[in-house]
Amino acid sequence: MYKHFILLVLFLSAAVAADPLLRLEKSADAMGSTYSIAIYGTDRVEMEAAVDAAFDEVQRLDQMLSNYKPDSEWSGVNRHAAEKPMKISPELFQLLSDCVEYSRESEGAFDISVGPLMKVWGFYKGSGHLPHRPEVLAALTKVGYRHIHLDAAAQTVWFDCPGVELDPGGIGKGYAVDRMVDILKRRGFSIALVAGSGSSIYGMGAPPTEPQGWRIEIRDPQSPSRTAVEVFLKDVSMSTSGSYEKFFRAEGRTYAHIMDPRTGYPAQGTSSVSVVAPRTIDSEAWAKPYFVNGRQWAAKHKPKDFRVYFCEDRTDQPCAWLQ
After folding, report:
1. Quick check: 92 and 119 in contact, CB under 8 A?
2. What is the C-alpha to C-alpha distance for residues 216 and 230, in angstroms, rounded to an integer?
3. Which residues are paired to 127 by β-bridges?
4. In the chain, what are the domains?
5. % pLDDT > 90, the chain
6. I need a surface site. Which of 157, 190, 289, 312 has the fewest CB within 10 A?
7. Contact yes or no for 233/201 (Cβ under 8 A)
8. Is 125 helix (H, G, I), strand (E, B) or coil?
9. Rounded to whole angstroms, what are the CA distances from 105 to 35, 229, 265, 305, 318?
10. To the nearest whole number, what is the mean pLDDT of the chain?
11. How far apart are alpha carbons 59 and 150 in whole angstroms?
């Protein structure tokens, strides 16, 4: 009897000591996107401080990676790296090195030097327009990751062609989300959902109401208001690239903003690709070459710890997880 009484007292004491989980949600604009955090914890003051620190980190990255702000380190590289080797910060050097590696492994389907093409197609500050073929060919002469030369010993970057322009659009959100997640973890939090524009997402742990993880809906590209499939994120990321995000129609065809840097034209044949991966920078970066290179290439080249949900333009080919 006494043993049972002691156990009951211990149970009640633990229940009283365990504070109920609080939920906090915040969002902020940076790097041309809206970033959001939903976090669970027991101390609202500490939660607020951690979330604010994560958003401060995005603002710091905006000062480094923006290709719209003339005083950013990224803009400085675009202006001056063709003149001579330019010394850059260790963080930017590592990021550019990773991007060049993505380009090599994707056979050029991912390329951060795609800036001139995005401009000529009108995707930088608009919904796009159909350029003349000579404009595309002229832009292509300035595109190609092989124009980017990195010296690890000197920590410099150099372009061997004038007019090369790097575009952070393919990796910026994923890198920022990973950095935000790192800050929340270092401050002792283990349950949060961090998202950049809703297209690059990381789920930390699992919310109290859903032990499988954070429930995320992948939209049906043929009818974006409908859900194609649900995914649960638990200490993994997911990024989606879809032709329905930004596109225009011209001469009876639809042109999306996802560019094939090798041809100079928007990729055709794919409508949506979602990649689940351990890091958000990887899921965001690889969604593009999977989209560009197609289903068979993606199935052959995806790592074992990636999951890829692939949708083609063909109505006779249903969306499916790649095996």
Report:
1. no
2. 6
3. none
4. 22-65+171-321 (3.10.520.10), 80-167 (1.10.3980.10)
5. 80
6. 190
7. yes
8. coil
9. 29, 29, 20, 16, 27
10. 91
11. 26
Q: How far apart are CA 98 and CA 58, in angstroms?
A: 19
How far apart are the C-alpha atoms of 264 and 136, rounded to whole Å? 6
The whole-number pLDDT of residue 20 equals 86
CA dihedral 23, 28, 32, 34 (to 10 degrees): 30
Q: Which residue has the tokens 């690889």?
A: 286
* pLDDT single digits (tens) 235-290: 999 999 988 777 688 877 778 889 999 999 999 999 999 999 999 999 999 999 99
112 closest CA partner among 174, 196, 70: 174
- Residue 278, strand partner residues: none
**227: which 2 tokens?**
């859900």
Segment 215-239, tens digit of pLDDT = 999 988 888 788 999 999 999 999 9
By the 8 A CB rule, do 194 and 215 touch?
Answer: no
CA-closest candidate to residue 158, choices 147, 172, 171:
147
CA distance 211 to 230: 15
Q: How far apart are CA 240 and CA 86, in angstroms?
A: 34
Two tokens at 195? 């998202």
Q: Assign 317 a pLDDT band (cuts: 50, 70, 90).
A: confident
